Amino acid sequence: MAVNHPNRFLSIKWKLLIAVILILTLVGGMISTLAYQQLLNQQKMLLEAQRDKLAQSLSFSLNTAVEHSLQAAMQLGFVANAKSDDSAEGYQLLLAENWPDVQLYWDLKGFGLYQLDGERLAHAGEPHSEDDLQWLLQSEASFELTSRVVCIEDCVIQVLVPTLVNGKPHLFFFESVLTEVISHFRIDKSIELAVLGARVSEGQPGPLWGRHLYSISNRPSSFSLLRHMADSFSWQQLSLGDGIYSYQDGHWAVWSFPLDKVENAPAIVVLMSLDQWQRMLSSFQLGMVGTLLAGLILAAGLVMMVAWSSVVSLARHANLLPLLADHDFAGVRSSLPKKLSLFPDEVDLIHLATRELADNMQGLENEVDEYTHELERLAMLDTLTGLPNKAMLHHELQTAIACIASEDDCVVLMFLDLDEFKRINDTLGHIQGDELLKIVAARLTNSVREMDTVFRQGGDEFLILLRQVRDEQEVSNVIHRIFSALQHPVVLGSHKLIVTTSIGLAYCNSSELRAEELIQHADLAMYQAKSAGRSNYRVFSEEMLHQANNRLMIEQSIGTAINEEQLVLFLQPIVELPSGRLRGFEALIRWFHPERGLIMPAEFIPDIEHSEAVIEVGNYVIRKASELVAQLDSAGWPELYIAVNLSAKHFLAADLLNVVRQEVEAHHISAQSLLLEVTEASVIEQVEQAMAAMASLKALGVRIAIDDFGTGYSSLSYLKQLPFDLLKIDRCFTANVLDGEADAHIIATVIELAHNLGRQVVAEGIETQQQAQCLSCQDCEFGQGYYFSRPLDVASVFKVLQEIEETRMWPIHQAPQPRLVRLGS
Questions:
Q1: How would residue 210 be classed by pLDDT, with cut points 50, 70 and 90?
Q2: Measured between alpha carbons, how far is residue 331 from residues 4, 352, 355, 361, 655 in Å?
Q3: Inter-residue contact 259 to 149 (CB < 8 Å)
Q4: Which of 37, 57, 392, 791 measures 20 to 30 Å from 431, CA to CA?
Q5: What tens digit of pLDDT does each residue of 694-705 get?
């Protein structure tokens, strides 16, 4: 088979050549860049050294000029003293007779002798201005050698030398041109100099950076450069002295040095040509480029010599790969070279590997054909039971839904979950559990119609797809056969078991329903069946989906409700029978949702009672009840307690004791002011844990009440051991205490039982005066119900407490109020 080269095919030899060239170019470029950068750094260091050298030279030249003036002062003093006994007169004679010689010898432009008050005693040369005299008067206070540079018509250096004349302090005023200083400063012929005066005031701008030019070397070439610098760069940039400037194909280093230490002093600008250095850099760059090109050409030649034969061999080998793809193993063998080259390389190894690959592929092809059919069969089957698996379920379910032709023809999905399978698995072991699943799978398969399919989704969950269902009786018959088949005992080793299952059914008569939705519907129905007890089935309804969505909303919103304090406590009074004296309150929770309004506990507590959210709600109620106890204590009601209803999960939570202790300590209340109520059923289910929890709470001082007594199946032996304080009679007995002897006898028995155990009794649900009197006659200590009051908000409770502060008697409303279902936390 011929090889079809793509349009953008590029031979590997050219790829190698390009790769080598790119690598060498990259490496050479990096080396060149580093070397060039090193040269630039060296240039910068040399320029900095040159600048420092110039600064030192300028400082030395200025200091030399000052010392020159000091020497002149000493020698002039000797000459003046020789002229006359009066030194002042001697200076006048000296200047009058020998000023030209003095001026020429000491290179002076002007000289003066002044008293400290500014009176001139002798003078020659240029007259001194008012500014000069003002500087002289300011300088005499230090009485030290002082100098400055002044630029008016030209730039001069002025030096004040303190001296004694006739035994009194005087000042010599020397003024010299700056030419000598500049001549010493110019140490290199490649350096051009320009002297600029001080920055002039606004309104009189100077030609260069607001300064006048007083002197410049090589004016024809230097002035145009200086003008360009002044137009292009600020004085601050020039003062930094770290730049290299280009002008008319030349490179310059430009620096400025102040000629005095005052802020706005004349300055000397140095212009240094860098053309020689730039020529050296350019020569270096050309040399590096030439070296790099030579290296690239040499490397390319070497690559071509070494790689050419191997690349050609690889190109031939590429024609063999399509033969492997076409399973032409004989053609591959015939195209490969029979012998290796004189010096084998990797290409020869590839030829050997290709031959071995062709042999192995031919052998594997036969094995693959054998296993393909088996893999296709196993891909859609459960390995344990042999039933179709979850992947097959989705495929078959989608197909069945798409084939629904009319409303009379529907598809039914049954979701089965074995009851108590986990307990069986944990007790007998996984091996016996797997054996049970195989038996159940076989019985389910025998219980369905020929057109139906049983699937195993995983674990102990099975799904059954019923196709072409015409009426509900067909479904009922299948369910009956399943329950009947599972009623036969299953023998596992020495154990004989009867397995039951909970079934959820979901009907589908529309081809628009998705398979995932139908599975979800059947799953919801199965959970409803499981909650109804063992061996049950339920049919999916929209109400189930609404309840599931509502449960999800509550689980997601309850945390926000706690954080934003949407949960509010209402209080129902607990009074003493028959006196009517107030003894405490039961805390009943209400949820004021910002969008749904008031939500009663029965609408959200059942949805969270098996999750951690019910513990968060319970802790919230304990905290709020503790706050109310503290408020009651502050209001003068320390004897009152607040009862809090706890779920079984919360009561047996490991952290409950710490939560109660923290709230009691945080609000500085008595632990006996809290009464925790737990239902009879939740205590009996895990009696040992309940006893331990009660004991720890009692040790803290908290009181315990058994709520809804009589509605469960209590063990009197356990009840005797539980360390509770109060027994609460459920409202179902209280409501009928006057109507039948049975309920009245039960209540009397419960009260007597509690008293024999040393406990007190609270009757719930009292709605009439007659009920209250009857219970009082039977020695029931406390009562609560709508006869006394409906649950009130906290503000209403404290309003009533203010009214009964003296009597401590809760006001009783004789007219029975409408009965509402009592809902706690």
A1: confident
A2: 18, 15, 11, 14, 78
A3: yes
A4: 392
A5: 999 999 999 999
- Which residues sit opposite 112 in a β-bridge? 123, 173
User: Alpha carbon 580 to chain centroid distance?
Assistant: 60
**Distance of alpha carbon 617 from alpha carbon 552, whole angstroms:** 16
pLDDT at 143 over 70: no
Number of CB atoms found within 10 A of residue 87's CB: 22
Q: DSSP E strands: which ranges in 83-240?
A: 110-115, 120-125, 146-151, 155-165, 168-177, 191-196, 213-216
Which helix (DSSP H) or strand (DSSP E) does residue 232 occupy?
A: helix 219-232
Closest by CA position to 174, among listed 108, 249, 246: 108
Share of the chain above pLDDT 90, in %: 23
- Alpha carbons 586 and 572: distance in angstroms, whole number: 5
Cβ(228)–Cβ(247) under 8 Å? yes
Two tokens at 197? 């005066």
Residue with tokens 């049950």: 536
C-alpha distances out from residue 752 to 542, 593, 741, 757, Å: 49, 44, 16, 9
Helices 794-803 and 613-634 sit at what angle, rounded to 10 degrees?
Answer: 20
Both structure tokens of 505 = 């059914």
Q: Supply 108's token pair.
A: 């002076």
Asked if residues 544 and 523 have their Cβ atoms less than 8 Å apart, the reply is no
Asked if pLDDT for residue 60 goes beyond 50, the answer is yes
| 263 alpha carbon, distance to own chain's centre | 54
The span from the CA of 393 to the CA of 401, in Å, is 12
pLDDT digits (tens, 9 = 90+) for 501-552: 999 999 988 888 888 989 999 998 998 888 877 788 999 888 777 777 777 7
* Secondary structure of residue 75 in the 3-state scheme: helix
Alpha helices (runs of H) in 84-129, residue ranges in sequence order: 87-106
What is the residue whose two structure tokens read 């007083």?
A: 214
User: What is the rounded CA–CA span in Å between residue 734 and residue 743?
Assistant: 8
Phi, psi of 406 (to 5 degrees): -150, 175
Between the ranges 67-81, 288-302, 756-770, where is the mean pLDDT highest?
A: 756-770
DSSP letter at 381?
Answer: B
Q: Label the pairing between strands 168-177 and 155-165.
A: antiparallel
Confidence of residue 455 (pLDDT cuts 50, 70, 90): very high
Asked if 589 contacts 569 with a C-beta cutoff of 8 angstroms, the reply is yes
Whole-angstrom distance, CA of residue 735 vs CA of residue 730 = 9
**Do 150 and 266 meet the contact criterion of CB atoms below 8 Å apart?**
yes
Joined tokens for residue 682:
């939740």
**Among 119, 125, 113, which Cα is nearest to 89's?**
113
Structural domains of the chain sorted by starting position, each given as residue range(s) with its CATH number in brackets: 16-171 (3.30.450), 182-280 (3.30.450), 319-365 (no CATH), 373-540 (3.30.70.270), 552-797 (3.20.20.450)
Which pTM value belongs to this model? 0.47
